Amino acid sequence: xxxxxxxxxxxxxxxxxxxxxxxxxxxxxxxxxxxxxxxxxxxxxxxxxxxxxxxxxxxxxxxxxxxxxxxxxxxxxxxxxxxxxxxxxxxxxxxxxxxxxxxxxxxxxxxxxxxxxxxxxxxxxxxxxxxxxxxxxxxxxxxxxxxxxxxxxxxxxxxxxxxxxxxxxxxxxx
Length: 174
What we know:
There is one protein chain. By secondary structure, the chain is of the alpha+beta class. The protein has 4 helices and 7 strands. Strands 1-2-3-4-5-7-6 form a 7-stranded mixed beta sheet, with helices on both faces. Helix 1 (13-28) packs across helix 2. It is globular.
């Protein structure tokens, strides 16, 4: 089975709860999505509210992947630039696949769906994202066509004495 992707799903309580559960499950499995374990959905809720507010203001869009049971199994948020010299590319944030689905190629499917969606956005030439160093994520994104274009050593402090690089990746849509 593969995931079914939807861009701009209706924001319902089910969607909010599904994204919160996914985000907590990914974080608690060690995923690099802005939190460190242990974390609860309630601790994540303020960050999701920021994403939802950006969506309501049309500064962001959400791509959701659902599994065969209809549960939210993957997400990626697109954020548009407001600076007039940078409106030709988008950020991709909170790229997640549920731990129970990892190893099935769904991460590649999610990035392919994100690329397809971005190609449909007017005036967008590239996708940028950042990832936490030390987990091999830059190799994964690289295998999906992204190029490492920058790195800030030690910019992410996961815990005292555990600083990781912030790695900038770019996918050209040309």
